[in-house]
Amino acid sequence: MVNCLGSALSRLSFTAAVAVALSSCASGQVTTLRAASGDREWADSVLATMPLRDKAAQMVWPWILGDYTAVDNAAWTRVERLIREQKLGGAIISVGGPIDIAVKTNALQRAAALPLLIGADLETGAAFRARGGYFVPNAIDLGGATAFPYAMGIGATRDTALAYEMGRVTALEGRALGIHMAFAPVLDVNNNPKNPVIAARSFGENATLVARLGSAFIRGIQDNGMLATAKHFPGHGDTEQNSHLELARVDASRQRLDSVELLPFREAIRAGVAGVMTFHGFLPALDTTRTAATLSPAIMLGLLRTQMGFQGILVTDALDMNGVLGKASMTEVTQLAVAAGNDVLLMPTDVPVAIEAVVSGVRSGRFTEARIDASVRRLLMAKHRMGLDRNRYVDVEKVRSIVADSANLAPARLAAERAITLVRDTMGLVPFNRLPRYSRVVSLTIAPRAELSAGTAFNG
How far, CA to CA in Å, does 38 sit from each of 117, 200, 272, 313? Predict the structure, then answer.
């Protein structure tokens, strides 16, 4: 593959402007996210006042749509009541317009007893969730946050500075919307063309490149006040199953896993990544019991925590996915996830049932209350590190001066231009010779039917 540079002269002034922006970031004109000694003291002071059920509720995070809802809307009142009555510790916010998401995160915070830690899938920047939509009848794009290319596009540039910029802009815009934790980057190595769910979400098929770009993205996120989450540990790349639908399987040897799948995660831990999200898949080389990695103490406690030294926040992938839930009960899956060392129980099918499962797990002796304390302490420390004990709200009036402003759009545009890649069709497989004489552009999407992101990755 050879990057298409196009006309250098036509882009000179634009590229120079972005270079100035990159230089200013490198000079330290940002607030770096670092653990402080006060994090532990505040967390312990709060933890000491909490009954067991409130501790359990800190670990359970529901899925919440980021759309506009009136205050008396039935869907909203259910969500507000859930946050208030269950005393939840966090949530994952999904699709909505930037203003709508900011308004909703503020409303969620008002309903919460303790500040909420709010996460979101921000794989291509804040625009991965914060989009205004598209009005089809009149072909009107309703705008939204800054959209970077999928990770594969950043991989095509091979530029760690652009990966860092992607993280920086993601953090600035996400924090403006009330999001504190990006469930990104995807550190799965895209080494199986039959994979139905990773594909363009990965930085590429080379583990070293994935590690370099992923670590740069993590630094960009965390240098600018947001928590990054590397996913999906220990690697969702070399599988032919969609873990949303079934238990996936990776049949690689331990030696191959060490040199390929685990490499990006080791580098992410070295870069100080705040969180890791799990993989709902079975890896016989790591655990022979046909257990999803999410629920495997051997993988999460033995490999990730002990051998690899990760001490941050461990987040399950969604617990409503068939790859982990299958025919099991939410109570059983929740308790297995806690026993495996997970701190955040993401998107259970029934929030009160998941909370009670944690409580009953302690009371039955399946795990100790000290085990729950360890998870809650990590989450409370993260909240203090993010400043949520001092101010849990965002200024909605400032959203339009931060989200998708010209300074943020510039590196995204540069990334999109530099991601354009020329693939040499030496075998003549693409039928260009059949096109009309004056055709200029061809938009080509080649992907399995189950690949949901490919159609939006290339719209010519």
Answer: 18, 40, 19, 18
CA distance 34 to 30: 12
**CA–CA dist 237, 204 (Å, integer):** 10
In whole angstroms, what separates CA 200 from the centre of its chain?
15
- Sign of dihedral through CA atoms 150, 155, 161, 164? positive
Is 244 assigned a catalytic role? Answer: yes
- Map residue 117 onto helix, strand or coil: strand
Tell me which amino acid residue 118 is.
Answer: I
Looking from the CA of 437 toward its CB, the CA atoms found within 13 Å total 0
How many domains does the chain divide into?
Answer: 1
The active-site residue out of 244, 320, 373, 405 is: 244
pLDDT band at 102; cut points 50, 70, 90:
very high
In a domain, 191, yes or no: yes
Residue bearing tokens 């690949």 = 451
- For 421-426, what is the mean pLDDT? 80
- pLDDT tens digits, 305-361: 999 999 999 999 999 999 898 889 999 999 999 999 999 999 999 999 999 999 999
- Checking if the pLDDT of 83 tops 60, the result is yes
Is there a domain that residue 259 lies in?
A: yes
pTM score, whole prediction: 0.88
Closest by CA position to 40, among listed 431, 374, 396: 374
Nearest 5°: CA angle at 29, between 26 and 33? Answer: 90
423 within domain boundaries: no
What is the extent of the structural domain holding 56?
37-406
Residue 28: pLDDT band by 50, 70, 90 thresholds?
Answer: very low
Candidate list 100, 121, 188, 317, residue with the active-site label: 317
- 3-class state of residue 27 by DSSP: coil
Q: Would you give the DSSP letter of residue 131?
A: B
Q: Given this model, what pLDDT does residue 430 score?
A: 72
Residue 431 lies in a domain: no
Distances (CA, A) of 355 to 35, 55, 92, 364, 365: 28, 9, 16, 14, 16
What distance in Å separates the CA atoms of residue 290 and residue 332, rounded to the nearest whole number? 16
Clarify whether 405 is annotated catalytic.
Answer: no
Q: Looking at residue 376, which CATH number applies to its domain?
A: 3.20.20.300
Could you tell me if 172 and 227 are in contact, meaning their C-beta atoms sit under 8 angstroms apart?
Answer: no
